[in-house]
Amino acid sequence: MRRVKAVHLIAGLVVIALAGAACSSKSNTNTNTAFKGVAMTGSGATFPQPVYEALFKTFHDTVESGAQITYGGGGSGKGISDIQAKAVDFGASDQPLSAKDQRPGLLEIPTVLGAVTVAYNVPGVPTGLKLTPDAIAGIFEGKITSWDDPAIKTQNPGTTLPHQAIAGVVRQDSSGTTFVFASYLNKVSPSWKADKNLGGKTDPATGKASIKQLNWPKSFDQEQGNANVAGKIQQTKYSIGYVELAYALSNNITFASVPYCTPTATGCTPGPDYVAPSITSVSAAGAGLTFPITSSTNILNSTASGAYPISTTTYLLVYTAQTDKSKGQTIVDLLTWLLHKGQDVIKGQNYAPLPDSIITQDDALIAQISSGGTPLTPSSGTK
Amino acid sequence: MSVGSLTLSAASRRRLTRARLLNRIFTIALWSLGILAMLPLFFIAGFVLAKGASHLNFNLFTKTPAVPGAPGGGISQAFVGSGLIVGMSVIFSVILGLGAAIYISEFGSTRAASVIRFTGDVLLSTPSIVAGFLVWTLIIAHWFPYSALAGSIAISLLIWPIVARASEDILRLVPRELRDAGAALGAPKWKVVVRVVIPAASAGLANAVLLAVARGIGETAPVLLTILGSDYISVNPTHPSDTISLRIYNYARSPVSSLHDIAWAASLSLLIIVLLLSLTARYLGARTRKAMA
Amino acid sequence: MIRSTPAEVGAPLSRRKRARLGDFIASKATGIAALALVALLVAFLINFALGSREGLRVLGFRYLWTTGIIAKFSVQGAFPYIFGTLVTSAIALILGVPVAVGLALFVTEVCPRRIRAAVATLSDMLAAIPSVVYGMWGFFVLTPWMDATLEPWLHKVLGPIPGFGRLFQGNTFGSDILTAGVILSIMILPIVTSISREILSAVPRELRDGAYALGATRYEVIRGVTLPFSRAGIVGASMLGLGRALGETIAVIMVIGNNASVQASLFGKGYTIPSFIAGSFGESGTNGLDRSLLTLMALILVVISLGFAALARLFVRRINQRARIAFDTGSARSAWMSRSR
After folding, report:
1. Same domain, B43 and B112
2. First to last CA, chain A
3. CB < 8 Å to C268, chain A
4. Is-contact B139 B146, C-beta < 8 A?
5. Where does residue A280 fall: left (phi above 0), alpha (psi -120 to 50 degrees), or beta otherwise?
6. CB B48: neighbour CB atoms within 10 A?
7. Distances (CA, A) of A311 to A44, B35, B267, C140
8. Which of B13, B15, B30, B280 to mutate to test the interface with C (most CBs of C within 10 A)?
9. Which of C32, C106, C309 sits opposite B34 (nearest CB)?
């Protein structure tokens, strides 16, 4: 009798699992393509995670019903590592691959534009706090420790800043968002660049700046992924950190406005106009994007008018040689649909679509994807 | 003052009063410690109940996650995934753990028995992250993909010693007379085990399985490294999967407050499941022990 | 164990052969399962030891006591992880063991008989709560309370004390080592309590009755007879609690701040070996050196946790031999086995 209880329990679990499977075949509203797509896995950057999740879900629900795409996040470092090991079908990174990380046949395909915001949680201080690049560098180097420091106060005469210690929240994991943020500070702040723990970290293998995982000040809280940094900022009063724009906007987290900064011999002179991150200001920066995009030709500190200085693009990493034909076809369809038909979803998630010139060049990259020697063309309905 | 028929000297009187006072203080201290030790349980369970109950609704169990920003949505795929992963782990660990327990109690020498028993006890303290890490190195080496199967192997590594030790405890309690009776009737050892010993111990074995399930379902670290998480319901062991614990872990730290609500509701469900399993296991275990005594 | 063999005198040869074959298969099959258990332990140790070789070859043992970044390889030294693990576990033991033993004494000595079973059950239920639920509670409830209430109070009261006060300096915002230590101490309560309960009940009645007969108060009996007798067992129980504290990942990650630095203050952020493994495993897949160092830390964690568990078993076994009880059955093991991380 009692043994039956345990058997019932296990049987119950199995029944739930099977029932769940029976319910898993979702009905589609409009399937444009004849090819149904297959399940795929991806991991990597949390910078674009909200828009990727929205895009993948919409693709599954409205285009290819078999394309269950699981995106595991985990940070750019994980995305690069996983796709190098071929443990996932595609990776995602905000940093262009270094020479050491490149693999034969591994494509880097820019997908969307986003912004790194300097987000904070200070009671009584609204969005739009004006922070100069030097102030930002000072805060994140741990040199500016109080909210009412003159460096912040002078730029914001109308705001009451409390005499409270600044609680920094940064990334623990290997992060493309950190790379973008630190690259920006490298460009505009000589003191940051000279800081051995932060801007000055170099990759011993290449000698070039390797700035994904930094040696942050001791008092800083470190979390995994953009979402957890945003969550921690929300939970901690007087905190400041860097997160992608979408996380700040969707969750009413206040963020700073940053000026364009003219490079000089000794540093960088901030201009008079403070730009707030938004789809418009990111697109303005993105208009200047050229191919191929390298760490020196990215759009940080863009000179375009109305551009937000800390804007960037992000990449999906895919192999040209796809062993599984259905997966390869699904990837080609997904990428094409994302670039050509995903604009509304992208903007809906507070990211900016790429400029048309880059989309054309992306199409050329996607055309290189093949399986068993034959190139894969996007299914009809994805363009 | 006098104790019984003795009259005490002043010094003895003082010593006695002091001893009684110390005793009283100590008793009060013990009561305080007792209450203090019980407080966390009530705080934690109470909080989870308070926060989770208001958000516990059918959506949680029947819907998959919504698109970021859209309201509604649940974590039905996490319940399915937990069931699948823990179900598979239980199968692996019962086959191996019960087998080991039967060997120790029926076939092995006392020397082998004590070595295996000791090993099992030591393995009970395996850190969960280490089990997950071991399986992850196999994933990167292409032995499995990020999948429910990988997750269930990681969890099996943790609950296998539980099943082994708990089963062996129970099998040892089965009275020797039952086995001897079987042997006296001419039955071979294996038949005695299958037909007599195991049925006699069945409640206790159920106890072992329930303990293992309760442990397995609450684990996060092993699956964090091996199943990638998923928004889709899947019973395919080679596909990525999701568990209730992993969802709570991710939702708790996200900035979206609606996900916090789901996390509390999921915590409440998980807590109820685990407590029910543990209490049932205890009950079965106690009854078995009483029956065998 | 069944010592008798099928002995049907005069039975047909085939049946006896079948019986022996069945026994042979059964014993070999279950023997393999039993051997596999031992093989599992060996697999952990050997696999991790082999994987660590490259890291040790390149960096040497220096890696373990370096606090900062090893510039040549751009690798963070491991001492902060070890330090964080030790400090949080120490806090867990200092706070948790006295309370746990106190609860055990409460249940065995002072608690009214009628509610004894209920209290024991409640205490064991604490063991069943999953780590992620502890983490949720720690993140949303304990951390804000520590930030706003307890830590400022400690800073005010204990901070000015020279020397010892250094533990309570600095800002109290965000997560910190102290919060992690407090959560760990709650998590080890059930294990230490349930085993201590068994240990304390094993004290021979004659010894205690003798002491009472001499006119000792309950306090004097506990102090003079019960505790000295149970000392080794309680140490064993604490070691098992320590094993749990060392290996705890999820609850710690959510409240410790994950900053790889070594600080004197308990209000500082910290990092433990398990959170290091959980945080950094992702990007080390194809980086041989990073993965090897990660494996080295996993090896250290396994060796310490399982080492303490083995020691604890030996301690407790000694007590049991003296008191002649079977520790192996009873609610203690159930509680011990049902904790999850």
Report:
1. no
2. 62
3. 218-219
4. yes
5. alpha
6. 24
7. 19, 56, 38, 33
8. B30
9. C106
Side-chain-facing half-sphere of A259: CA atoms under 13 Å = 17
C184 confidence band (pLDDT: 50, 70, 90): very high
Q: Among candidates A274, A272, A268, A235, which has minimal Cα distance to A251? A: A235
Residue A48 contacts residue A114 (beta carbons within 8 Å): yes
Strands (DSSP E) found in chain B: 2-3, 6-7
Q: What is the pTM of this model?
A: 0.89
User: Does residue C67 have a pLDDT over 70?
Assistant: yes
Q: Phi/psi at C224 (nearest 5 deg)?
A: -95, -25
Residue C262: CA count within 13 A, CB half-sphere:
15
Which sign, positive or negative, has the C-alpha torsion A221, A121, A44, A116? negative
List the one residue out of B90, C299, C168, B50 whose CA is nearest residue A17. B90
Statement to judge: residues B99 and B181 lie in one domain: yes
ipTM of this model? 0.90
**Dihedral (CA of C151, C152, C153, C154) sign:** positive
Predicted confidence at residue C161, as pLDDT, reads 85
Q: Are residues B63 and B207 in the same domain?
A: yes
Q: What total number of domains does chain B contain?
A: 2
CATH numbers and ranges of domains, chain C = 79-284+312-323 (1.10.3720.10)
C-alpha–C-alpha distance, residues A359 and A340, integer Å:
8
| Mean pLDDT over the full length of chain A | 86
DSSP string of C296-336?
Answer: HHHHHHHHHHHHHHHHHHHHHHHHHHHHT--TTSSHHHHHH
Tokens describing residue B186: 């001419």
Is B85 in contact with B241 (CB distance < 8 Å)? Answer: yes
Closest CA to A328 of A381, A364, A362, A374: A374
Whether B256 and B188 map to the same domain: the answer is yes
Band of pLDDT at residue B223, cut at 50, 70 and 90: very high
One domain for residues B117 and B34 = no
Distance CA(B235)–CA(A21), nearest Å, equals: 6
Q: Is residue C5 over pLDDT 70?
A: no
Q: CATH number, domain at B223?
A: 1.10.3720.10
Contact C146, B277 (CB under 8 A): no
Determine, for residues A231 and B205 on separate chains, whether the beta-carbon distance falls below 8 Å: no
**Which residues of chain C are within 8 Å of residue A43 when distances are taken between CB atoms?**
282
Indicate the residue of B140, B230, B252 with minimum beta-carbon distance to A70.
Answer: B230
Structure tokens at A144: 């500016």
CA atoms within 13 A on the CB side of A131: 35
pLDDT of residue B19: 87
Which of C31, C83, C29 is CA-nearest to residue C259?
Answer: C83
Q: Rounded to an integer, what distance in angstroms lies between the CA atom of residue A333 and that of residue A281?
A: 30
User: What is residue C3's three-state secondary structure?
Assistant: coil
Beta bridge partners of C310: none
Closest CA to C327 of C200, C188, C189, C190: C200
Question: Same domain, yes or no, for B15 and B80?
Answer: no
Contact criterion met (CB < 8 Å) for C336 and B124: yes
CB neighbours (10 Å) of residue B5?
5
At A50-102, the pLDDT tens digits run 999 999 999 999 999 999 999 999 999 999 999 999 999 999 999 888 888 88
Q: What is the CA radius of gyration of chain C?
A: 25
Considering only CB atoms, A247 lies closest to which of B206, B250, B255, namely B255
pLDDT confidence bin for A26, thresholds 50/70/90 = very low
* Host domain of residue B12: 3-55
Based on the fold, state whether residues B135 and B40 are members of the same structural domain. no
Q: Are residues B46 and B74 in the same domain?
A: no
